[in-house]
Amino acid sequence: MDTNKTFIKLENVSYMYDPEEHPDVKAIDGVSLTVNEGEFLAIVGPNGSGKSTLSKLFNGLLTPTEGDVWVYDINTKDDDHITDIRRNVAMVFQNPDNQMVATIVEDDVAFGAENLGIEPAEIRKRIDESLEAVSMSAYAQRKLHQLSGGQKQRIAIAGVLAMKPRCIIFDESTAMLDPAGREDIIEIMHQLNREGVTIVFITHYMEEITDVDRIVILEKGKVIAEGVPIDIFNQVNMLHRARLDTPEIVWLCSLLRKGGLDIPAETLTGEQLVEALCRLK
Ligand code: ADP
Ligand code: MG
Predict the structure, then answer these.
(1) In a domain, 140, yes or no
(2) Alpha carbon of residue 157 to chain centroid
(3) Which of 117, 209, 216, 259 has CA 20 to 30 A from 230's CA?
């Protein structure tokens, strides 16, 4: 996958929720940023740093107070193309209950695609494929309220997949789930990314993003750091200032190094640490 092609581009974007009364209160403050085609980008930052505002700027749910957002060369302020942009840049939110519109699973999955005016035979095909992609085929006829939080989130993702977007933004979509549910959702994100879907993952669990392509750190509406995971995680002071946790493995590695063990700087996951330790034997 060519991840050098720009898909979404923000140029000097600021967003004020109340520009008349409070022009100095900027939820997003002078952000320039690109999301590349096919990449897996993570955005992290403390509560109130502007993550959700930024994600809504990506697909035109909000338009900038200052600056411009381009989605494959179309300005999100261009009303004529907004449906096209929303179809291609879809969102999965934190609470699956807020995204459910039907009672039966497959009706819910179909909803977005039906609104796009897609014909019934094609919708049937997409429902089946989308449920398969999130391992929920056996649940097509179930009632949504009988499902767990993690299962509902997978159904929300299936509904988004049925619209065949090129990019999916996950705004803290794992935050309300138990560890197993979180892992399932993250595995689905990676699988979709391998199939070519551009993924933007907003989270504050640092250990979930050790294997993404790029991390952007947001603080008070500004991008304060951007880079590959290894570069970000080794900026311990910056993470501390931004009130973000260092992943446990990174912290453990630093202790092991202090204890005299030769653990490579690029060790970010449990598997990598086990490998590094085995090599020391
Ligand atoms: P995050 O998702 O990182 O927690 P948000 O994008 O939700 O951050 O919020 C960024 C800032 O914008 C915060 O100061 C928040 O209080 C403010 N904000 C968010 N939504 C609204 C809104 N609908 N009206 C006014 N201010 C808002
Ligand atoms: Mg948020």
Answers:
(1) yes
(2) 12
(3) 259
Same domain, 218 and 256: no
CA atoms within 13 A on the CB side of 166: 16
Say which DSSP state 2 is in.
-
Ligand with minimal distance to 50 CA: 1
Residue whose CA is at the smallest distance from ligand 1 atom 21? 17
For residue range 152-177, what is the model confidence (pLDDT) as tens digits? 999 999 999 999 999 999 999 998 88
Distances (CA, A) of 131 to 61, 99, 169, 175, 214: 26, 16, 19, 22, 29
* CATH number where 49 lies: 3.40.50.300
Question: Does ligand 1 come within 6 angstroms of the Cβ of 17?
Answer: yes
**Structural domain for 131, as ranges:** 6-246
The answer to whether 198 and 39 are in contact (CB under 8 A) is yes
Neighbours of ion ligand 2 (CB under 5 A): 51-52
Q: Which run of H or E residues covers position 114?
A: helix 105-115
Cα(110) to centroid(ligand 2), Å: 27
Specify the pTM.
0.91
Any ligand 1 atom below 6 A from CB of 196: no
